[in-house]
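User: I'm preparing a small set of examples for a lab meeting where we compare how different chains pack in three dimensions. I only have the primary sequence for this one, and I'd like the structure in token form so I can line it up with the others. Please keep the answer compact; I'll paste it straight into my notes.
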Amino acid sequence: MITATAVDRHVEQLFDVLRRLHSALTEARIEYRVIGGMAIFLQISERNHDAARLTRDVDVAVDRKDLERITRAVEAFGFRYRHVAGVDMLVDAKEPKARSAVHLVFIGEKVRREYLEPVPDFSKATVTIEGILLAPVADLVRMKLTSFRLIDKVHLLDLDSVGLITPEIEQALPEALRSRLEQVRKEERQSTGAE
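Assistant: Understood. Below is the structure token output for the 195-residue chain.
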């Protein structure tokens, strides 16, 4: 039987992971930014809660030079560092599944060799009421346009639908990324018959 309780549990688990991670990194004075689907969810939720989509995990941008400190800092908060199949992650010590792990990406480095741009350096964070540091929308847009998978396109459309991709953000994009943004918008217009 399907229940809404499963969704509630997932949301509780995600936010528990996020709170513990924030506490660990803050206590150790380690700079970070929440990125990916969780950051998109929180940014959109602030503007229009009904337009926000859940995500399955937490992605965080950190500085590679802090990796050893991160590994030590998170242990007391129930995480263990793992490097699996080329991916750096923090898994819950109680339930060490890669799918539900905190995935780490490193500022100034490309996540994949073929990506157009590296992960942006730390910009001024958007800070939630709880003090959690999110990548600003401009950085999220750049990262989503760089990875450019189907989920990234959906996230871009979601950001655009609530007015978070401003003309200033768009104008600051390099031509290759601006072209991808227009492609996403064009595909959306075609799929909805608006073109």
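A couple of notes for your slides: Strands lie at 33-35, 58-62, 79-84, 87-92, 102-106, 126-127, 133-134. The chain has one domain: 4-192.

User: Perfect, thanks.
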